[in-house]
Amino acid sequence: MNVQELKHPGLKQWVEEAVALMSPDSVEVCDGSKAEYDRMIQITIDAGLATPLNPEKLPGSVLFRSDPSDVARVENRTYIASKNQEDAGPTNNWIDPAELKKTMTELYHGSMKGRTMYVIPFSMGPVGSEIAKIGVQITDSPYVVANMHIMTRVGTKVLEVLGTQGAYVPCFHSVGKPLGPGEKDNGTWPCAPLDKKYISHFPETREIWSYGSGYGGNALLGKKCLALRIATVLARDEGWLAEHMLILKITNPEGVVKYITGAFPSACGKTNLAMLIPTVPGWKVETVGDDIAWMKFGKDGRLYAINPEAGFFGVAPGTNNESNRNAMESCKKNSIFTNCGLTEDGDVWWELIGHGAPGKEIVDWKGNKRPAPKTDKSPKGEEIAHPNARFTAPAKQCPCIAKEWEDPAGVPISAFLFGGRRPKTIPLVNQAKSWIHGVFMGSIVGSEVTAAVISDQVGQVRRDPFAMLPFCGYHMGDYFKHWITLGQSHDESKLPKIFFVNWFRKNDEGGFIWPGYGENSRVLAWIFERCSGKGKAVETPIGFLPTLDAIAPPQGVSEAAMQEILNVDIPGWKAELADVRQNHYPKFGDKLPKELYVELNAIEKQLNA
Ligand code: GTP
Ligand code: SPV
Ligand code: MN
Q1: Cβ of 514 below 6 Å from ligand 1
Q2: Taking the complete model, does pTM exceed 0.85, yes or no?
Q3: Which residue has its alpha carbon closest to ligand 1 atom 29?
Q4: Residue 317 lies in a domain
Q5: How far is the CA of 240 from the centre of ligand 1 (A)?
Q6: Is 134 in the pocket of ligand 1 (CB under 6 A)?
Q7: Cα separations (Å) of 327 from 271, 408, 467, 523?
Q8: Mean of per-residue pLDDT scores for the chain
Q9: Ligand 1 atom at minimum distance from 274 CA
Q10: Considering only CA atoms, which of 472, 391, 388 is closest in space to residue 72?
């Protein structure tokens, strides 16, 4: 479809202005068809950017290798350009919106020369449902178009819902690598250098401008940019929640169903928990979503969650048939792999895939030939797959996708989990005593920084409140307040119960104490029972902890180890709370809700008693 055929005058004009600014060679409006997807993939193969994989192993799938400057989200190039700096808050980068638009307009000037501009109408959430939001992304990356096909609902059906007057979030995206006459990508991933990349959000006008990166959350603008950063602003104004949360359905041996969401920072286990295969007999887990939840109150006063996405953009390393068989099955066909290794037999490979690689050689994520590894481990810094290598797979291919996953009414949530990677102090699981106590715990989440972000802090613990540090589109102090207000204005008995979990406690040798993955079902079962008014617990200063007989230890975990991870580490917690008081909360100044200091004071007092 061409631009002249667009029936929405505002949209048509916006595209025409973008064309005038960015000077693409041609323009195409995406229809969302399979033929279009196949054509995008063929274009990237012809440009030397995609490698078709062995159709007997991974039918309909390809592998991309990106640029070393373009392998993850770039938090220090991500901006919340609200009119007042105060509204972006201390945890977001801010530039005055007029100044930022001026800078970026210069960068966009002619940035699509030699390329095609694709106009992607997309829906976050089922097309036409009341809860869904429409965006329109223009991009010069066929890789992005193909990924958007999998991750969102794309095409003509979205334009039909938009009609002639409908509202949409306009999203500019250019990889920032115009081509000269006759020039081709020739196998070089197109992007701009790090200091020219911008991932910008204009919360008042609800616009997204992204430049210079073709990767993941920087470039698939429905995901973190729209469904989180812009959506958090809408949610604040309209009284709902847009969160970095998985959504799972859990069924107990008696057939009782509950839905649980969980917020863990990037690469801290959401996809794995959402698809977990329980080791506890008789229990079943199914997936509703693996990264983002939008939650609104139903007439019955309960919170209902939908997954606004249509696919998984999952971390490849660490994924194997033991740890996450459902993810392995989801990406067995029709999938896009980015920055994985390529074996001699046309298969993908990554660290901790469960086996070495066949043959003599393997191609690493930088495109270099290396000896085929005999085991599935590589020394740090010498990985064959980038530690943030990803698969993009349609959610409907997941063997454990819940039948409700596209229900526009959403699923009623019984529990929220918060957690991160914490080698010490934070117990395996801990239940908040009240909504406000849970909000306090969410506000102090800490986690080791992972490879999902380009940062020199990888491995260091940082505070990542609600796992939303890089994804909140406004002042984090106001975000805490929003959570508190929701609790105060609703019947607390109907709100989800709040839990803290930590799968990542380490022993003195640096090994994980808790085996994680499927064994996390032991913790889910306890949480399920707590939500039913059962499940044995002891009250401690930090919350309700399971009694030692409440969770049977998995094989290989001693009684003493269980005691260690279910203990209140009093000196550790005192240090934790002192750090919150000295370094974390002061960042938010007057915007830190005083209710949170009340919680902090009360817990400190009990720990000192
Ligand atoms: P994003 O997509 O970045 O938001 O990540 P995510 O939160 O969905 O994380 P994911 O489930 O993809 O897990 C990231 C990494 O953590 C993978 O390498 C997993 O193998 C590993 N992981 C997940 N769950 C566990 C667990 O219970 N224990 C341990 N030790 N590792 C885990
Ligand atoms: C994350 O970093 O939390 C992701 C990957 O889910 S990305 O889409 O790149 O944001
Ligand atoms: Mn994520």
Answers
A1: no
A2: yes
A3: 516
A4: yes
A5: 27
A6: no
A7: 8, 24, 22, 21
A8: 97
A9: 11
A10: 388
In this structure, the answer to whether residues 187 and 247 fall within a common structural domain is no
- In this prediction, residue 208 carries a pLDDT of 99
Q: Answer yes or no: is 65 within a domain.
A: no
- Give CA–CA dist 210/203, Å, rounded: 14
Q: How confident is the model at residue 1 (pLDDT cuts 50, 70, 90)?
A: confident
| CB-ligand 2 contact for 213 (6 Å cutoff) | no
Task: Establish if 68 belongs to a structural domain.
Answer: no
Contact, 229 vs 217, CB < 8 A?
Answer: no
Calpha distance 466→472 (Å, rounded): 10
DSSP annotation of 196 reads: G
Residue 553, C-beta contacts closer than 8 angstroms, at least 6 positions apart: 559, 561, 562
Distance 454 CA to ligand 1 centre (A): 17
What is the predicted pLDDT for the residue at 129?
Answer: 86
CATH number of 247's domain: 3.90.228.20
Residue 506 Cα to ligand 3 midpoint, Å, equals 23
Q: Is the CB–ligand 2 distance for residue 272 below 6 Å? A: no
Whether 289 and 356 map to the same domain: the answer is no
Asked whether residue 67 is domain-assigned, the answer is no
How many structural domains are present in the chain?
3
Q: Which atom of ligand 2 is nearest to the CA of 220?
A: 8
- The helix (run of H) or strand (run of E) holding residue 287 is strand 284-289
Decide if 225 is catalytic.
no
Average pLDDT over residues 391-407: 98
83: containing domain: 3-30+73-238
Q: How many residues does the chain have?
A: 609
Q: How far is the CA of 261 from the centre of ligand 2 (A)?
A: 17
Report residue 420 as tokens.
């991160």
Domain boundary residue, one of 360, 394, 428:
394
CATH number of residue 210's parent domain = 3.40.449.10
Does 93 share its domain with 110?
yes
Catalytic: which of 30, 191, 268, 398? Answer: 268
pLDDT-derived band at 128 (thresholds 50, 70, 90) equals: confident
Residues 143 and 267 in one domain: no
Is ligand 1 within 6 A of the CB of residue 314? yes
Tens of pLDDT, residue by residue over 348-362, are 999 999 999 999 999
DSSP codes of every residue in 419-447: E---SSSS-SEEE-SSHHHHHHHHHT-EE
Q: What is the DSSP string of 494-527?
A: GSPEEEEE-S--B-TTS-BSS--GGGGHHHHHHH
